[in-house]
């Protein structure tokens, strides 16, 4: 029964995330926000909702390995697995705004996360509040920048009528999505604990791999659909924004509700105290740096299928070393 609930949790998280994406995009586009910023803010928050619900449930259960493993593993999967697979199928164009502002914001957020854990060994209430404040500042600056650079008629040209729904349906989808995410997170936590106990894996390994993969399904579905519809800004914006939201929103909101700290068991695996080349955090920073190399030094204006294959291969290597 627990295994069935574990598999069902992925389905519930996917459907719940999809409902949140559809409702959020419809509301945001009607507010005159560009598709890039929609991907960076609204869609990113919606697709990060599974990570948020899973982390909150894990915090109340006292399982910090799942919280940190889920966030770090999802950030690794977003760049290597999701962006890699998307770029293999569709060439992803990189906008000037992404190179100048949004990618540096993601890299800075990732480094800030590592600095906080290294010096404080926890994310307490005050750090959580700071994370949420930085997130709100990022959203404010993104929307302000978008409305300044994109006049209303240009935003209207970006809107796909088929992707928008009525406000009533949007609110209904949002409520259903939240419910599915809540129950799906419960099932996933229970299933993760069971698998870790039965197969002898630590909860950190399961969370960085299976849990992170499951909570990254909405990002994968959204990016592939967006790329198929030639909305590359939405695809890349969703992934970069999701990595920012995973740290500032997921960890920030979770810490406000219930502060989380590193356990003695996962200190070395999450950070870089004993094995810097194989720590989860260093893998996350390395994948971000690899994406930066592709954006600024390689083809510069796009992520090619070759680069996508390289990113995807690095995810396979990470999973192999993890197990």
Strand content: under 5%
Q: Any idea how many domains?
A: 1
Widest sheet, order of strands: 1-4
- Overall mean pLDDT stands at 79
* Total E-strand runs: 4
Radius of gyration equals: 18 Å
Tally the helices: what do you get? 13
**What sequence of helices (H) and strands (E) makes up the elements?**
HHHEHEHHHHHHEHHEH
Helical/strand content category: mainly alpha
Fold-level CATH name: A middle domain of Talin 1
Task: Supply the CATH class.
Answer: Mainly Alpha
Q: What ranges have pLDDT less than 50 throughout 5 or more consecutive residues?
A: 153-159, 264-268, 271-277
Distance between the termini: 25 Å
CATH architecture: Up-down Bundle
Helix content: over 70%
Shape: globular
Overview in brief:
With 323 residues, the protein is mainly alpha-helical.
Task: Explain what the structure shows.
Mean pLDDT is 79; it is low at 153-159, 264-268 and 271-277. This protein has one domain: Up-down Bundle (A middle domain of Talin 1), CATH 1.20.1420. The strands form two sheets. A two-stranded antiparallel ribbon has the order 1-4. It has helices at residues 2-29, 35-61, 64-89, 96-120, 125-149, 152-158, 167-199, 203-215, 217-228, 232-257, 267-270, 280-296, 305-322; strands at 92-93, 122-123, 260-261, 302-303. It is 81% helix and 2% strand. Helix 1 crosses helix 9 (217-228), helix 3 packs parallel to helix 12 and helix 9 runs antiparallel to helix 10 (232-257). It is globular and about 50 Å long. It contains 13 helices and four strands. It has 323 residues and is mostly helical.
């Amino acid at each position: 029964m627990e295994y069935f609930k574990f598999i069902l949790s992925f389905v519930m998280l996917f459907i719940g995330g999809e409902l949140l994406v559809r409702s959020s995009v419809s509301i945001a586009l009607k507010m005159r926000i560009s598709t890039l910023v929609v991907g960076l803010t609204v869609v990113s928050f919606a697709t990060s909702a599974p990570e948020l619900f899973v982390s909150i449930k894990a915090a109340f259960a006292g399982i910090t390995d799942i919280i940190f493993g889920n966030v770090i593993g999802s950030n690794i999967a977003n760049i290597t697995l999701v962006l890699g697979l998307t770029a293999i199928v569709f060439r992803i164009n990189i906008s000037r705004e992404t190179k100048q502002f949004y990618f540096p914001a993601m890299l800075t957020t990732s480094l800030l996360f590592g600095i906080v854990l290294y010096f404080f060994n926890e994310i307490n209430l005050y750090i959580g509040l700071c994370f949420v404040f930085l997130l709100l500042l990022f959203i404010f600056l993104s929307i302000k920048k978008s409305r300044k650079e994109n006049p209303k008629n240009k935003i209207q040209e970006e809107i796909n009528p088929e992707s928008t729904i009525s406000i009533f349906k949007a609110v209904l989808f949002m409520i259903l999505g939240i419910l599915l995410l809540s129950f799906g997170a419960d099932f996933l936590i229970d299933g993760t604990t069971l698998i870790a106990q039965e197969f002898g894996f630590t909860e950190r390994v399961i969370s960085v791999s299976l849990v992170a993969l499951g909570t990254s399904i909405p990002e994968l579905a959204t990016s592939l659909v967006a790329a198929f519809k030639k909305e590359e800004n939405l695809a890349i914006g969703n992934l970069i924004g999701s990595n920012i939201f995973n740290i500032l929103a997921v960890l920030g909101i979770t810490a406000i509700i219930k502060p989380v700290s590193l356990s003695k068991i996962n200190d070395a695996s999450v950070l870089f105290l004993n094995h810097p080349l194989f720590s989860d955090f260093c893998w996350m920073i390395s994948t971000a740096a690899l994406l930066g190399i592709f954006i600024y030094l390689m083809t510069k204006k796009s992520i090619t299928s070759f680069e996508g294959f390289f990113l995807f291969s690095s995810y396979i290597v990470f999973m192999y070393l993890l197990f």
